[in-house]
Amino acid sequence: MKFTIGFSPCPNDTFIFDALVNNKIDTEGFEFEPVLEDVQTLNKWAIEKKLDVSKISYGVLPLVIKDYVVLNSGGALGKGVGPLLISKKQINDVANVMNQVAVAIPGVNTTAHMLFSYAFPSAKNKQFLVFNEIENAVLSGKVDAGVIIHENRFTYQDKGLVKLMDLGEYWEESTGAPIPLGGIIVKKEMEPNIQRKLDELIKKSVEYSFRNYPAISTYVSSHSQEMSEDVMRKHIDLYVNNFSIDLGEEGRQAVHKFLEVYERIHHTNIAYDGIFAH
User: Fold this and answer.
1) What residues in the chain have per-residue pLDDT under 70?
2) Tell me, what's the pLDDT at 265?
3) Is the peptide bond before 180 cis (omega within 30 degrees of 0)?
4) Of 9, 48, 240, 242, which residue is the least packed, with the fewest Cβ within 10 Å?
């Protein structure tokens, strides 16, 4: 049985799926066709039901919940891992200024956009860019501020940019929950026993990579050529943790809290039954 599986080329995702897609573990007759794309593209494809299994931003989950369920393994939740709001210079009255200035956001249906909207519900002047274009957009003056994710968290200071707010920290302090950044979804139409087997295999893949860490595999490094191994490890340390092995009750509750906030922001109702694979 063969499945298309989408994830990003970022070190945290290639670390998670390396053993699965490169047959470093016994996949028990399942075959995988990996499709590596930025998460914004994967979010769009999830709306279109393009892939069997995919990494998504939790920000898009409400739009795909009718067609997919969330697996317990392979995702990114945590504390101290959220997006940062950055600018060229420090701003004192951030709350008021964000309602007036141009802000670059990494995608419409992203967790970063949701967390920014949670902190600044009145902000209107948003420009949606690919995540790795945001630092330069701020530096060039195209926008006044930007929301950064992934490896840009480790590089913005080197470019003379300053942090205005840690949006993840704001979420954690306000909700008491870890930040649901990205999840792994599988088509709802698949039989429950297939969903369970996929979940088990992804869990084994994460555990395999952890057993061999801190060594960086060729698969991870080949997709992160512009990063040093130190930055790759920082990336993995930040986004891959026990929640990536199994969401557990705390992780599932955090996702529910995220959907509740989404409902408030978007004035919509979400059917909560059957969100997770069983």
Assistant:
1) 272
2) 87
3) no
4) 48
202, 74 Cβ separation under 8 angstroms: yes
Write out the two tokens for 120.
Answer: 């600044």
pLDDT for residue 130: 87
Beta bridge partners of 68: 187
Res 151: pLDDT: 76
Place of tokens 């922001």: 265
| 150 has catalytic annotation | yes
* Choice among 113, 150, 235, 256 that is catalytic: 150
Cα angle, residue 15 at apex, residues 213 and 242 outer, rounded to 5°:
70
Question: Which domains are delineated in the chain?
Answer: 2-77+179-266 (3.40.190.10), 84-175 (3.40.190.10)
pLDDT at residue 270, as a whole number: 78
Residue with tokens 């088990």: 200
Amino acid occupying residue 22: N
Which residues share a beta bridge with 276?
Answer: 70
Amino acid identity for residue 150 in this structure: H
